[in-house]
Design goal:
It is built from 11 helices and 10 strands. By secondary structure, the chain is an alpha+beta fold. The chain has 3 domains: 114 residues, Acyl-CoA dehydrogenase/oxidase, N-terminal domain (Butyryl-Coa Dehydrogenase, subunit A, domain 1), CATH 1.10.540; 104 residues, Butyryl-CoA Dehydrogenase, subunit A, domain 2; 152 residues, Butyryl-CoA Dehydrogenase, subunit A, domain 3 (Up-down Bundle), CATH 1.20.140.10. The strands form 3 sheets. Strands 1-4-5-8 form a 4-stranded mixed sheet, with helices on one face. It has a 4-stranded antiparallel sheet with strand order 2-3-7-6, with no helix packed on it. Strand 4 and strand 5 form a beta hairpin. The chain is globular, with a radius of gyration of 22 Å.
Length: 391
């Protein structure tokens, strides 16, 4: 693979960085947090005019048809700017579920509005515990006529109050999958939302309650009983996206630490002159560069359809989850007491990285996934070997 970004990719990254430097300053972020839904509608409209919501949506449905690597570049910048808004929930997570369905009627129904920012959607997946396999889906959708009735609770639904449409993974059968994804308008009778109190206020979540919500058969996204065939690919993209967000937040923590170490005086010289601080910043840089390589290799592998893609995604999310914790924690140490205050901006990026750390599989989950993939690969390799000749 070519490790350099193309000219078009560099232009996209610069465009996103310039826009966010103007519209997602720390002051703007803090102002957005006071909005009822936790983001600025005006900023969202500007993003829609730039085509960002449709970045990875197929051109046939009004998007730009770009790939995961371009999406990761934008998410990297969003993490670096701590952008507060439903971009990840709608564009990365939910739109990927709809696109993975391969159903032209559903894609034509929803993707054009999503691509132009006229509609926002989210995915309601987590229940009592964040399990990233079909076994974590317990809420049932019972058959009624040619439709379904849903009752149950979904937790930690990202930007649910900003969504026009909620994609819900519900259990409709037994077996290894047995789940079905249903698209439900957020104003449906029986559907209610309760905002959560979050550590990271740039990423709002809600508890969504379904009390006898009725939907027709046209609400099914994908196939009945095979919901994970659309959720699974979306979660892989979300894992890369979350890693890119953590990378951006870690990058900003490193930048702030280096800047601070140059100007903070102690014992008559900048603290950056002390070897212990130099070592800490050097280790932070090493983690950020390694995380960068892991994220963009995983994005490339997914785009290229490489057999290594599942392993690369697992490795990237596991590594970046650990690396971001180290980098952001070290940034607090470099800054000392001021780094932990509300008035100083460092906590915005620290909390941003912490928010994405457990989502779409934490480090332990993805290490287990990587181990399983390597064992399967080793087993397949053994099976293809020529049998040894009898002596």
């Amino acid at each position: 693979m070519d490790f350099d970004f193309t000219q078009e990719q560099v232009m996209l990254r610069n465009l996103a960085r310039e826009f966010l430097a103007r519209e997602s300053t720390p002051r703007a972020v803090r102002a957005a947090l006071l909005e009822p839904r936790g983001f600025s509608d005006a900023t969202w409209q500007q993003m829609a005019e730039m085509g960002l919501p449709g970045l990875a949506i197929d051109a046939g449905y009004g998007g730009q048809g770009l790939a995961m690597i371009e999406l990761a570049l934008v998410l990297d910048e969003m993490g670096r700017a701590a952008y507060p808004g439903p971009y990840f929930a709608s564009t990365v997570l939910a739109a990927s579920v709809i696109a993975a369905s391969g159903q032209d009627n559903q894609m034509a129904r929803y993707l054009p509005d999503l691509a132009h920012g006229r509609m926002r959607t989210t995915l309601a997946l987590i229940e009592d515990a964040p399990l990233w396999t079909p076994s974590g889906v317990k809420m049932r959708a019972e058959r009624r006529g040619d439709g379904f009735v849903l009752s149950g609770v979904k937790r930690l639904v990202p930007f649910a109050e900003a969504a026009d449409l909620v994609l819900v993974a519900a259990r409709t059968g037994d077996g290894a999958d047995g789940t079905t994804v249903l698209a439900i308008p957020s104003d449906s009778p029986g559907l209610s939302m309760t905002p959560n109190v979050e550590m990271d206020r740039t990423n709002r979540t809600s508890t969504v309650i379904f009390e006898g919500v009725v939907v027709g058969s046209d609400a099914v996204v994908g196939e009945i009983g095979r919901g994970w065939s659309v959720v699974g690919p979306a979660l892989r993209r979300a894992a890369i996206g979350a890693a890119a967000e953590m990378l951006g937040a870690s990058r900003r923590c490193l930048e702030m630490s280096v800047e601070y170490a140059k100007v903070r005086q102690q014992f008559g010289q900048p603290i950056g002159m002390f070897q212990a601080v130099k070592h800490m910043c050097a280790e932070m840089l090493l983690e950020v560069e390694n995380a960068h390589a892991a994220v963009y290799y995983a994005a490339w592998a997914l785009d290229a359809g490489s057999p290594d893609a599942p392993l690369a995604v697992a490795a990237a999310k596991a590594y970046v989850s650990d690396a971001s914790r180290k980098v952001c924690g070290s940034a607090i140490q470099v800054h000392g007491g001021i780094g932990f205050t509300w008035e100083y901006d460092l906590h915005l990026y620290f909390k941003r990285a912490k928010h994405f750390e457990p989502l779409y599989g934490d480090a332990d989950f993805h290490r287990e996934q990587a181990l399983q993939l390597m064992l399967e690969r080793a087993s397949a390799s053994e099976a293809t070997k020529e049998p040894a000749l009898a002596s």
